[in-house]
Amino acid sequence: MEAFLHPTPATPDEVEQLKTRVRLGVLRAAFAALRPRQWSKNLLLFAGVVFAAKLGDAVKVAEALLAFGAFCAASSAAYLVNDVRDVAHDRLHPVKRLRPIASGRLSGRTALLLATLLAAASAALSAGLGLRSLAAIAAFILLQLGYSLGLKHLVLVDVMTIGALFVVRAAAGAVAVQVPISPWLLLCSGLLALFLGLAKRRGELVLVGADATPGRPVLEGYSLAIVDQLVGVVAASTVIAYALYTFTAHTPAMMLTIPFVVFGVCRYLLLVHRHDLGEEPETVLLSDRGILACVALWIASSAVVLGAFA
Q1: Could you give the CA distance from residue 46 to residue 43 in angstroms, rounded to a whole number?
Q2: DSSP for 239-283, written as a single string
């Protein structure tokens, strides 16, 4: 009782240790808020190098890496702004309430300051690649901002905006390494992103229906039946578009990569419908062994074919 009423004052070392733990906690929360798992989406920046058969060109690869870093910074800035705006809604969600800003581990003010610094860093990195790259990152940031400020609340416009963001990524990757932008690359990138976005909406609808979890307002404009139809249509369109690309490619051998695309799309559909994993596509893409093996084989086979016939 005496120790409780008259606690021993903390020593200077203990105070410093406490401050260090607090600082480390904020740093960990800030890093988690950047959503590093989402950076995998920016791997699309390397498509220009791969399809131009420039993987052996160290300068081109370095330019692609610089563009990748710029888009990772811009993506994280957008996620921070989005989480600050959605903090009230996220606190009601069973998963999103654990995010650093929603849980209170990172203040909104700190998040916005960090977002500003990241956006500036992304612009500086892109400027080093030229004005066209700077324009691409500006378009990406503005589109992300538009999504956070209102486009995500419009039925169909929300998933189409997600598709457009991937198209910008694909175009920026080609611009960064100064290779021609393939319209097939843009089309396939947009369709694949639209497919993942619709599958994500399906996962959210399933979660809302199963647990009576408060969902984002835009979900009121969707239904499970119509989303399933849209997912099927877009999945088929994605495979057809990729197949048409291989038929028109400068080497017919690219047709050998079609089975990997078909398997990857079908595998993802299987996981979405059997295990309801569509709400977090980045988790599925980075954890499922079948999809990881499929992506690795597609990359390897594409690199071999394009390199052999370059």
Answers
A1: 6
A2: HHHHHHHHHHSS-GGGGGGHHHHHHHHHHHHHHHHHH--TT-HHH
**pLDDT tens by residue, 211-220:** 445 556 788 8
**Residue 287 is encoded by which pair of tokens?**
């954890």
The pTM (predicted TM-score) of the whole model is 0.83
Q: Report the alpha-carbon distance of residue 147 to residue 280 in Å, rounded.
A: 18
Which burial class, exposed, middle or buried, applies to 247 when counting CB atoms under 10 A from its CB (0-12, 13-18, 19+)? exposed
Virtual torsion, Cα 23, 26, 28, 32, nearest 10 deg: -170
CA distance linking residue 33 with residue 101, whole number of Å: 7
Give the lowest-confidence range in 47-56, 110-119, 168-177, 180-189: 47-56
DSSP 145-197: HHHHHTGGGSTTHHHHHHHHHHHHHHHHHHHHTT-PPPHHHHHHHHHHHHHHH
Q: In sequence order, what are the residues at sequence separation of 6 or more whose Cβ sits closer than 8 angstroms to the Cβ of residue 26?
A: 105, 106, 110
Q: Is 251 left (phi over 0), alpha (psi -120 to 50) or beta?
A: beta
d(CA 240, CA 238) in angstroms, rounded, equals 6
Averaged pLDDT for residues 143-164: 91
Say whether domain 37-181 belongs to CATH 1.10.10.10.
no
> What token pair was written down for 47?
């498509």
Q: What is the CA radius of gyration of the chain?
A: 22
C-alpha to C-alpha distance for 145 and 161, rounded to whole angstroms: 11
Quote the Cα angle for 134-136-139, to 5°. 110
What 8-state DSSP symbol labels residue 129? T
The full set of domain ranges for the chain reads 37-181, 182-310
Residue 160 has pLDDT above 60, yes or no: yes
